[in-house]
Amino acid sequence: MRIGHPDRGVAAAVMTAAALLFVPLSTARAQVAAPGVEVPDERKRLNARVFDRVWHVVERDYYDPSLNGVDWEAARDRFRPEAVAAVDDGALYTTINAMLDLLDDAHAQASSPAVTRRQDAAGRERPVIGITVARGDDGVYRVEAVREGSAAADAGVRPGWRLAGGWTPDHDVIAGQVVRIAFLDEAGAPQARELTPRIMPPVPTFVADRSRPGVLVLTVRAFEPGLGRWMGAELAGLGPDVDVILDFRGNPGGRLYEAEAVLGCFLPADVPWAWRTARTGARRLMTTSAPCGELGAPLENDLAVLVGPSSRSAAELTPAALQESGRGLVVGTKTPGAVLISMDADLPDGGRLTLSRADFVTVSGVRLEKRGVTPDVVVAAEAGPDAALAAAIAALADPVDTAGSPPAPN
Asked: Could you tell me which of 361, 330, 356, 360 has the C-alpha nearest to residue 343?
């Protein structure tokens, strides 16, 4: 089971993040065949198979049997002709995602084959241009992060820029093959760039920083396999006077087991932390159970968790549980509220569908979906990463209790 970051297998349970990459609808419709231009029959057949697979899985498995009030048959009649007529993956997946958007669910998303290949290769050396982008509610890509030492960094691309034309994430990146992108910067000014992808090693998923006296910062970029073992090893033997800071900013989520392992690092076993409700209406209480590596007992050191607008799913549920239990101080920017329990399904062309399969509320009854986690100490994202970290260090050093009360249940 995974939370947020899409799995590599078929129908692996997840709680998904809304950070996947898709073409804006206006771009896709420009890619539908012009009058008099015939889309090859083979392409039409594949388009139809992919669309129909998505439509049927939603109808059969979506966590809300009412499909949030959407007339799903009418949606098929509206979007299927456009999907079948799509000339490429970008147009096809934008049409599919436009249909999924009717559900008003950030987790219901389809990843094109190119996006899926990049997800599956995330842990390997590969060609990259060095930008992480996410599609907003307006259907426009925005740059969330720029990798140091990449072509994008050398070209001066900055977080917050919007993609306005050229390459989209539905196209593969090939080493040495120039990628042309039209950006709009923070002021809306055009910024055209030609980026040559470079082979770069994967970014480490887990990083421990002991450079500050009396502070251990554990950066977790995803709840991937081995997180619990790694965190347990980093915490084992830690002196009682060392403050611990978990950095979940930019973390899209991952495996539920690893989220429970992180909670097990700081909370006793069998502590209730969430309720899960299936499509059938059956509710199940989730309690801490997964071991934190070889850590013999939950750590008692002071704890803070850094979150931000790109902290999703497991990176929201974990700080929420620590906050509600009074075990940890949450610092940073409010999270987006993308926490439904979901499942992946492979599509006929190599793409992937992520779909919500169960609802989730905290143990106190707070539904975090579309609400997110409100930090105890708020630090604007625009202040930069050092500001949030500095605020967490200062809050832990302050003997005054700065933790706020959890939000009231909906």
From this structure: 356
Are residues 330 and 318 in contact, defined by beta-carbon separation less than 8 angstroms?
no
Residue type at 337 in one-letter notation? G
Q: Do 323 and 297 touch, CB atoms closer than 8 A?
A: no
Residue 128 forms beta bridges with which residues?
A: 198
Cα–Cα distance measured from residue 270 to residue 221, given in angstroms and rounded to the nearest whole number: 26
Strands 254-255 and 2-3: antiparallel
pLDDT tens, position by position, 353-394: 999 988 889 999 999 988 999 999 999 877 777 899 999 999
The phi, psi pair for 349, rounded to 5°, reads -100, 5
Which residues in the chain land under pLDDT 50? 1-32, 401-410
What are the distances in angstroms from CA 307 to CA 232, 335, 389? 21, 7, 10
Nearest 5°: the CA angle 361, 259, 350 is 95
264 CB burial (10 A radius; 0-12, 13-18, 19+): buried
Q: Is the dihedral of CA 202, 203, 205, 210 positive or negative?
A: positive
Half-sphere exposure of 354 (CA within 13 A, CB side): 32
Amino acid letter for position 336:
P
Q: How far apart are CA 354 and CA 15, in angstroms?
A: 9
Backbone angles phi, psi at 102, to 5 degrees: -60, -25
DSSP-assigned letter for residue 227: H
Strand partners, 215: 243
pLDDT of res. 311: 92
Cα 98 to its chain centre, rounded Å, is 19
pLDDT of residue 7: 34
* First CA to last CA distance, the chain: 27
Q: Kindly report the backbone phi and psi dihedral angles of residue 61, in degrees, each rounded to the nearest multiple of 5, phi listed first.
A: -120, -10
CA 384 – CA 377 distance, rounded (Å): 15
CA distance 21 to 170: 7
Dist CA 289 CA 308 (whole Å): 27
Question: 């896709």: which residue's tokens?
Answer: 28
